[in-house]
Each structure stands twice: as C-alpha cells, then as structure tokens.
Design brief:
Strand content: 5-15%
Number of strands: 11
Radius of gyration: 21 Å
Largest sheet: 6 strands, parallel
Helix content: 25-40%
Mean pLDDT: 90
Shape: globular
Low-confidence stretches: 1-10
Length: about 325
Amino acid sequence: MVRQRKGAGVLRILFLTNPYPNYVPDLLLHGLRKLLGPDVVDFPRKDCLYEGTLGLGVCTEDQLCPGWFPHDDGKVDRDDLEAKVMTGHFDLIVCDYRSLPTYTLQFNRPSQRLAIIDGEDQARPIPPGQYALFRRETDGTDHSIPLPMSLPEEIFNWITGYDQLPKQHTIGFLGSTQDDERKRLADQLLQWYPDALLHTTAVPSDETPMPDGRMGRDLYYQHLQQCRTVLSLPGAGWDTFRFWENAACNSIHASQRSPLFMPDAFREDLHLLIFEHAHELRLKLDRVLETDGGDRSMIPMGRHHLLSHHLTTHRARYFIDRVNHAFMR
C-alpha cells in the first residue's frame, strides 16, 4: 500500500500536470491539496488554477473563480524533483493522462508507484500496467477505477449564497449546444413549460470566447437558483461539471440517466430525478411539483448527500483509499 510516514501521518505526492485546464485532474488536485497541503507538489506549477480557472479551456474573466484553488504561498517545494523521485521522497506520482510523455521522459522509475488520471471526454486506450488507472468515463467494467468529477466547497458556498432568490422558472438549463439532442430536448420542454429558462448558446472558442447570450459565472449561478428544477444533460462526455453545480442548487435536480459508475451514487427519486427521455422527465417532474411539499424533501436530501460524499476532499480521500488497495500486496 502507499505508505504513510511515521509521525507525519501524511502522503507525499508528486502530481504531474498539463497546463491546459482539465476538470477531473484539476478537481482531484484541489481536494488533495486541501487534505495534504504542500506535500502535494503540482509540477509544472499549474498557473491557471491559481489564477482562478476551473475546467474551462476558453475562460474569459467573468468565468473565473477567484480564490477557488489554495494558494501555495511559496511552501510547495518543486526543487530537485528528479533526485527526490530517485531517493523515494514521494509515496506516489499522480499523472494527468496528458502528461504521460513528461513522466516517461523525466520521472519513470520502475519502483515508483504511479496513478494515471484519464479525465478525457472519451476513455483513452491505456493498456493495463504497473500503475493504478483512474478514469472519468467508465461504467466500472473495464480495468480502470472510476473517478468522477466533484464539487469544490468554495463553489458550493458561491452557489448557495443565492438560495433566497425567488423561483421564477419551473425548469432551467443554461449551456452550450449545437443542433443536437440537448437543443431538441430544450425545445420540447419549452412547449410544456412556457416559463422555462432554457437558454443555449454556441460552444465558446478561441475565435469567439463569448458567444451571444453566454453568461458570466456569477450571473449563471443566480439564474440557476431562480429555477425550481435544474436540468443535467450529457455534453462531450457523460460526467459534466454542470451536474455537480446543479446538485448544489436549492432546486429539484433532474438528470438524464448515465451509464457511468459513481461511488456513493445519488439515489433515484430520493436525491434527484433520473429520466431516459423527455416524456419520462415530464411525468416525474409533474408528479413531484403537484405533490404538496414534494420538492422540499428531495432538495435537502440531495444536498446533504453532496456535502457528505462528493466534495473534492471526499473524492481525494476516495482516491487515496483506492490507491492503497491497488498497491496492496
């Protein structure tokens, strides 16, 4: 198992990063840093996290999350890393899939314990090997260990700061879309719920970082909190950050059924509504909305489950536990 040092009771982790934002490894790094402090060394220093970027490759100033990532305050020691790896200073190397060339060229030591994080929209073809493979997009039946996204406590507090905003919409979805299933579902829901807030924009790009109608993050959270129901739909992958943001809202959470494995999963009809298609969503949602107080039990129970199992610190503890099992002999 990944050993703990006598007295200190902590792990030393070298976390090999890629400069481009990437939700799963970035959220895991956030949780590990909050748990273990500067003993988690991000290398190269992932500047975009300290500058407030969370997940978005195209991140305008109004999409930043100031202060979401713990400052290193000069306490993270990134000196002489190759020598430290050679002498066993680190208990574990964590490597973003996108940084595998860095690991292979600079830090590949046969005796070093390694965890690879595949946080891509589609699972990458990584063969089994002498490492623990964690993957975002998996149903748990391949050789990988499921590692979904999670929610930073800082973002939870930001969203819940708007709990008292009045509800103006039966259901809401704000996001990027093209001519796809997302848009067709939004159009159908708007026919059933004329007060719905179903606002879709083009996908941001370097050429058009702020498509017409795209909201800044703070305004986005305000609008979500004005919806009695918030809708989670798959994007480029099944696991989306929107799902975790929606789980924090003071709203009924409705999510399209996902094939992915989630540790400590939300329970259907207890924590959230799960649906396969638009007509099932309408049936379930109308049943809850027509039941006096039906939403007043689901919302707090869903939020409690989020706070008990799915903050980034919980995901970091889960990760450490899975690593311990993976390397147990």
